[in-house]
Amino acid sequence: MELVKTYYDSWRNGIASFDATRVGGILAEDLDFEGPIAGKRRGAVGFIGGLMRFVEGLQAPISVLQQVESDDQAAAIYDAQLPGGTMRFAEFFQVEDGRIQAIKLVYDAAQYRAFGGR
Hints:
By secondary structure, this protein is of the alpha+beta class. Helix content is 27%, strand content 43%. It has one domain (2-114): Nuclear Transport Factor 2, Chain: A (Roll). The chain has helices at 2-9, 20-24, 44-56, 109-114; strands at 27-35, 39-42, 63-70, 73-82, 85-96, 99-106. Strand 5 and strand 6 form a beta hairpin. It is globular. The termini are far apart.
């Protein structure tokens, strides 16, 4: 799924290569996001701000361990090195009308905060 690849390519290497315009171009304006800390949110603009804060804390490029795709869905598991250590994340995507419509992010929120995530 090219959209998911573009999504990760726009931020996987850290803040120096973060491309808010590129990621914004593939997200639905009314993106549905769900994550352990943010809860359920709607809207690409707020999501991009949260993604940027996450990317600012990356100590190295993320390492995608596995990615699976089917017609309009995809999932990825990756490791991210944060100031306090490396932790695992999983993301689940729903694609419609040529854009990412929904993202569900799964991780241990307590570990994320302990490792310096923001």
